[in-house]
Structures are given as C-alpha cells and as structure tokens.
C-alpha cells in the first residue's frame, strides 16, 4: 500500500445551523484511485470544496505528504498540487480548449501571451493522457460533447504538475462510450502516480476503477475500505444505512443531521 499523500482528520463543516461534515477523516494515496461515495446530500461535494479551499473548514487538520499544511483558499490548494474537477463543470463556453486550460494562468508576459507554448502544452497534455477524440485544441468548448468537455476539464487539472486530483461525478452526464474514456483517464492518472479521488454514484464504475472506497453517511465517514475486501451490496448498505455487518457505524441511529 502506498503512502498517504493527502490526509484529513477531524474535519467539521457547518453552513449556518446545518452541520454537514462531522469529524471526517479521509485519506488519499498516491498512485491509487479512492472512490468517495455516499447518498445525495451526504457531504461529498462539500468535503471536496473544503480540500480545495473553497469552503473554510470549521475545524480539522490537513496533512500533505505527512506534513501539516493549512488550506485557507484555492491558492493554497493549487500551490500544493491539489486540483478539483467540479460537479458543475467550470469551463468557459466561448473559449477554445487552450484558452480554457490556461484560464487565469496564461503564459507569457503582459499583453503578449505565448500562444504557441500554451497550445503545445495543451496538445502534449491531451496526448499524455491518450486523449484522441478531440480534433483540435482550438475547438471552442461550446462545440464539444459532454465527454470531451470532461476530458478537457480533467486534462486542465493535470496540466499544473498536480499531485492530487479530485473528480466530482465526472461521468454523471455521460453515455457509455464517453464514460469508458473518462474512466480510462481516471486510471491513467493514478498510474502516473497521482492521488485520485473519484466521486460517483455508479457502483459498477467505482468497482472498476477504485482501489479504495470511502463512504460518507449523513456527513460522517463510516468506512474506508479496500475495494477487493467488499461487495457491491455491502457498499450499497454502507451508503444507504451507514453500516453493513461489521463495517460502518456501530449504532447508525446515533447519527443525527
Ligand atoms: N453552500 C451551501 N450552503 C448551505 N448548505 C449547503 C451548501 N452546500 C451544501 N450544502 C448542504 O450540505 C449538504 C451536503 O451537500 P453536498 O453538496 O456536499 O452533498 P453531496 O454528497 O455532494 O450530494 P450529491 O450526491 O447530491 O452531489 C446538503 O444538505 C446541502 O444542502
Ligand atoms: Mg455533490
């Protein structure tokens, strides 16, 4: 088992009176895909946004490569090499692939952007991920399919020497072939040594690509298990009831929202 690259301990997060995350511990390992699963509203996206520095944590500690770090804003997360592909994809429709991949981080000085260098980097990144379905990196994102957009969003996240990539339901809106491509891409990121977090409601996808499965139930981390040690139905029980046999909460009825 590889070393943890990112570890959260005792994470709490409330929105006003609503306590969304309760003392959550979460570990991401380099070279592995960790699936983060849980029912709608369990707190998955909130957890990711806390890691990304979008939502301030109320309490909790973050360790990166074993060292305590503070993530108080998106800049801190980006500097550590933590990248997120959000559930509500943040791509700009009116811009092309290169412009999207470099949005806010354009190369060049002042008015002179190094278009050639950015274009090459965009093309090289897509190639390194074996992405072949995008014909030209000068295609406007508005004319891409859902799967191609996901691919661009994922490629964008690995353009920055990222170490950890968190993908919030990257296949939710995709067809069979496009889902296939994105799942292959997810595996490839892990093979390149990144710590990958995949949020998904699709058990088949989770069991196919994930090395480990972490289950949130009503804002509590009820189990972090190796995929090979559990069955589909155990994970479904963990998601819906917070426990399955010896796994999960000892007394789920004590979990209050
Ligand atoms: N910005 C916010 N302000 C107030 N409440 C929020 C906010 N973001 C999330 N919540 C609440 O936090 C809880 C967890 O939401 P979250 O989006 O993290 O769930 P999720 O596990 O990602 O669900 P899904 O599978 O539907 O995407 C929900 O009850 C939601 O209403
Ligand atoms: Mg979500």
- Which CATH architecture would you pick? 3-Layer(aba) Sandwich
Number of strands: 14
User: Structural class, from helix and strand content?
Assistant: alpha/beta
Q: Order of helices and strands, N to C?
A: EEEHEEHEHEEHHEHEHEEHEE
Based on CA atoms alone, the radius of gyration comes out at 18 Å
Shape: globular
Widest beta sheet: strand line-up: 6-9-10-3-11-12
Total number of distinct structural domains:
1
Helix content: 25-40%
Largest sheet: 6 strands, mixed
| Small molecules held by this entry | adenosine-5'-triphosphate, magnesium ion
CATH superfamily: P-loop containing nucleotide triphosphate hydrolases
Which key terms come to mind for this protein?
257 residues; alpha/beta; Rossmann fold; 31% helix; 28% strand; binds adenosine-5'-triphosphate; binds magnesium ion
């Amino acid at each position: 088992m590889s070393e943890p690259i990112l570890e959260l301990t005792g994470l709490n997060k409330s929105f006003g009176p609503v306590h969304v995350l309760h003392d959550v511990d979460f570990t991401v390992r380099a070279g592995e895909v960790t699936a983060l699963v849980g029912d709608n509203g369990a707190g998955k996206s909130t957890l990711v946004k806390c890691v990304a520095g979008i939502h301030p944590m109320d309490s909790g500690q973050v360790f990166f490569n074993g060292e305590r770090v503070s993530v108080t804003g998106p800049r801190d997360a980006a500097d550590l090499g933590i990248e997120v592909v959000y559930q509500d994809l943040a791509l700009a429709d009116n811009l092309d692939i290169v412009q999207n991949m470099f949005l806010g981080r354009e190369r060049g000085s002042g008015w002179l952007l190094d278009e050639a260098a950015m274009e090459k980097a965009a093309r090289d990144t897509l190639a390194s991920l074996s992405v072949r379905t995008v014909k030209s990196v000068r295609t406007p994102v508005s004319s891409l399919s859902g799967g191609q957009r996901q691919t661009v969003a994922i490629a964008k996240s690995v353009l920055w020497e990222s170490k950890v990539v968190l993908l919030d339901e990257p296949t939710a809106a995709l067809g069979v072939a496009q889902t296939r491509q994105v799942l292959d891409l997810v595996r490839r990121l892990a093979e390149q040594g990144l710590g990958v977090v995949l949020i998904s409601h699709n058990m088949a996808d989770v069991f196919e690509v994930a090395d480990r499965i972490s289950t949130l139930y009503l804002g509590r981390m009820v189990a972090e298990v190796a995929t090979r040690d559990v069955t589909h139905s155990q994970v479904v029980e963990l998601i819906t009831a917070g426990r399955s046999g010896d796994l999960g909460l000892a007394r789920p009825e004590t979990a209050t929202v």
